[in-house]
Structure formats: C-alpha cells, structure tokens
C-alpha cells in the first residue's frame, strides 16, 4: 500500500505510453484528468493485488474508442464517474476499489481520476499488461470473469448498460454505441471479487510502468540514453532504428487502423520495415517479409532523442524512432491467450513466436 | 373491454398492413407469433384507453429494425418478453398493461404476443396511428413521455438498457445496437402512467385497423371492391392506379430506403408517379414534380385485386396497385408534430399540407 500523487502520475503516464504499444490513447489528456482529480480530492491509495480482501468488489474503468478521436473530443470528466456509479447502483453493492482495465496509454490514467474523485483505492494490476484494441482482450476474460453488467457513458449524458451472452458480444455492442456517441465513451465493466483479481489480473503492472517512466525521466536528467534505460527496466529488445517514411491511417468502426513504414539509419541503413496497427501495433516485418515481432508481445516505437513512446495517432513522416519489443505477460502465452490476442485473431496467417525465441534464433544467424 | 382471439387478430393484421403505410414490417410473422401465444395462453383482454387507471403502469412493446431483415431473421419469440421483464425488474414496479408502439405492420402484433404470454391486458391505442421509421416519432414524445429506461433484446440473448438525454438519442444508440445485433431487436420503452396514456396515445387505433381488415375480408367474401371498402372505413382518398415499373431498395443503417415508380393504368393512363420511402412511404409525386401527398399522412399501396397493402420490402416490378392516402391523426398536425415527422424532417424541402386540403385544391382545378 502506498500513496500516488502528482509526481508518481507523471512517471506512470510516461511508462504507460510505452506499454500502450502505440495505442491506448495519448496518456496526456488522461494525465491532466488524474492530476486535476488528485489536486482536488487528494492522493490515491494504491494496493498490491494481495492486499485486496477476497470478497471485496473491484471494478475496472476505461475509455472505449479510437485514440485519434480523443485528441479533439475531450472527456468532460464525469463520464467515468457516471459509469461507475450506475454500475454500483445496479449491483446494489459497495465497490471497494478500481483497477486499470489496461495499463497502457490513456486508460492507465482514468482509474486514478475515478479513484481520487470517489475516494477509493486503486489496485496495482490490470487486465492486459499493455493495451489492446478490443474489450474482450483481457486476462479477466481468460480467467472466466464476465464483462457484463457493462456500462458506457458519453459526454452528453447518455448511459447504456449491456448484459450480453459473451465478452465478444459486449465488444460488438458497446463499440456500436461508442461509435454512435461520436467515437469515445467511458466504461465500467468486469465486476470482480478480490479472489478473481488475484487469479486473473496482471500483478504490479502500474509499478512496472512507473519504473519505466522514472527511468526515462532520470536518463533525461543525467543526459544518458533513455532508450537503453527503457530496454533495461522493461526487459525489452531493440528491433530497428529508422525514420518514418510513409504512414497510412484511418479511423474506422471505432478503431484507428493503418501501417507505418520506416527506413533504417545507423546500423540499420539500407533496411526497411513495416508496422501494422489497429489502435495498437500488431506486427512488424522487414521489407523482405521477415517477421520481427507480433502481438501479444509489445511493439513500441520510442523517440530516439527522448525515449518517450510515439503513439500511432501522433506518428508522422520524418519521426526518428527506435522500434523495441517487450515480452508480454505469460498469461497471453497460453493456448487461450494466443487464441484471444495472437496474430491469427488479427487476421495474420502466422503463428505466435515469443520475442525471446525470435531474438535467439536471429542471433543464431550470425 | 373485450376479448381478442385468433379471428380478431387476422383482421387486425390485415388492417395493420394498411396502416403500416408500406413499412412497419410484414405483419405475417408477427401474426403467427400472436396467434401462437393466444392458442397457448388464451385470449387477450383489450381495454379502451379510458379503462386504464390513472396510476397504472403501461409499457409499449415493439420490434426495432429494417422490415427486410425480418423476412430472413425470424424472432425466437422470447426477445420481447425478455425486454419487458428486464424493464419491469429495473422499474421495480408491476406493469399493468402493454400498448402497441405503432399500430402499423408487424408492431401491431408483437404486443398481443407479449400480452397473451404475460397474461396482461392490451390498451386500444398506439403512439403513431400508423408506422414511422424512428422511435422518437411517437405521440408519447410529443406529450413529454421519456423513451428511457429503454431495453432492447436480440434473439441471441443480448440485452441492452439505455438512459439517454433525449428520445432522439435513444433512436441513435438503440439503432446502433440493433444494427450490430444483426438488424432487428425487440424493445420495451416509454414507460407511462394511465394518465399519460390518456393524454398522449392515439385512441382506438387497434379497433380502427381491425375495422379496415374486416372490410377487406368481407369485400372478398361478397366479391365487392376491397379498395373501396378500405377507403370508406379509413376515410382515405385514391391518388393513383398503376403498375410498378421500377424499384430501388437498399437496407442501410437499420432502415430500408428507396423509391418505387409506377405508370398509370385505366383513368391514370399516360401518367406516372414516384413514391420514396424510409421503411414507410414518405412522399408521392408525379413525374412532373407535383406532390400528391407527404408524411405524416399515410401513403399506402393496395393490391388492386385483393385490397391488401403491399409493403415496401415486398413491392416488385409488375405489381398492380392503387395508391391511397389516409389522413393522419390530428396530433401530428400540430407544430411539434410536423417538426417531428413532417416532410422537412425526412429531408424534403416542402411544407406539409394535409391531404384533405391537397385533394380539395386539386378538385378545384377542374
């Protein structure tokens, strides 16, 4: 148990951008919401997963929609609170704590704003260990937690509650309402007991993102290489270094989809790669078709100078970046996990190979 | 107060097809559902609006979606019951009766299936006096009744409850869920007290459709002209007689939209008209651009031989029909009514002129 204040939020937001793997929404807007709530209501208590009583009720909160939308359609700050309190009324039970739905991107911050405003603790865990584009893609699902009752609220004051036959149907229907609401909503769902949190969440991920964010900050202050710092703390691997030479992006069906191409610099000169994304980066391959990494491992583009992550919606021609890959949580490497978020789910006809194995076999090439 | 059995249902369904003004869904599927429920659970008690106690709770039921969908995606029969009982649980109050949302088309029948199954009375009234494509287009809205809490259920078992900031937002969000659910859902909404029913509903419309249906049946038995019988009972006017020579129709955004063209026969030989529709027929004009009728008046194509209404989704090349227009209820002829369902709402740059006036001024031409 520890207190999270403004300084911690800054580090968590920087690390969350990395764990957003290109998507998850720019944490900047969420960071402002969280800081504002903490300044108004006080610091947030963060609990380790093991500190949550087994029978306590925990409810994740998050934004649903395409990250591109959020740049122009700013939340009014009440949507997430509305969703939370409507769910509470429906359950007819006190909610003990909230927990990030996804630790990557904007959604790392929303739960802090909610926790500060409602004066409740937050749990140091999440359902992704990164960001993913669809709401059934959480380790809570793998652990048998139902997504419904699920509430989405928009900034106009509309509230919708779903009870569905599967977590995939929750995605389909809630996405439709989100698109009809203008492209983004706030959500409360996957109501869990403390025991379920212990069984299904990815533990300590908020602290992990904070460590990554802190490493970037310290590297800047000490004028050392921030990318090296990120790789060290996250356990990631460098895949490529280059300049963005082409970018294709469209917001479609509640997602931002597209691809970016990069040409190599320094030791990667003469080579080029392509990254494809649906909100998040999904697959990176060379011009020759060699696959360097795929989801569920985390593919991230870091700014060469600052070490900060560049999101898919801000990536633009001329950006100089280092592409890294961080191993995903072991929960995603099970049969069910790969079925839910592996490359085949996203339409790529390739098997998932853990990044450590890919690196090892490429090392063997030399 | 009277009992509605299988024979009455047959007549009501035939009349409801006329009052569907081309849309509202083919009553055939709904008729089978209603007859099946009556055979299983017994006849339904129909109350006059004045027989409803002022403080009793009345909830309309209806299908939402494009009529074309229903031909292939048959309801499983439980969606409407699910929607009704979820709403009841949410309200925490007993529901005294149901009432048709729209007396036209399929939606004339659904409430009978629900009433029979749940053993509750039905009220002889509705919110349209016909069929309209969007759910805010009810006289309940004009009378200040809120559409929410609004529940839609699909045949897969998904249930969604909306609380919106306006009845138009209910239309937008519930339509999005309906499309995502495959194009049709069953709905319970516009919870009212008996006093509100008295103030806002269109009274006696079920009996009116029954009278029209009975007139068609009797004309057939007596071998007299069924179209004349419909005109007499409904107070409608003949606009045109012709053959369908062109039809354009697409299912799009939860609606079936399009237009049909007809060339005249008999006394209309040499003339031609065009009818445009969004689920329901909205406007009919001659080839020269003279407007013969617009919504909210009821534009209906009747089969020349049988007098039965031809719906927009079954209309096809070669159909021989008589186009008639029935005056709409006076509630739609108010400023608010015309704003909600007049030709300008549907995108036509013309003023609404009541059909009686149009007929009168055309009579003056001679």
Automatic annotation (TrEMBL), chains A, B:
Highest taxon of source: Bacteria
Positions of the S-Me-THD-like C-terminal domain: 166-355
Domain S-Me-THD N-terminal, residue spans: 8-163
Alphabetical list of Pfam families matching this protein: S-Me-THD_C (PF20906), S-Me-THD_N (PF06032)
Gene3D superfamilies: CV3147-like (2.40.390.10), CV3147-like domain (3.40.1610.10)
Protein name as it appears in the record: DUF917 domain-containing protein
Organism: Clostridium aromativorans
Source lineage: Bacteria, Bacillati, Bacillota, Clostridia, Eubacteriales
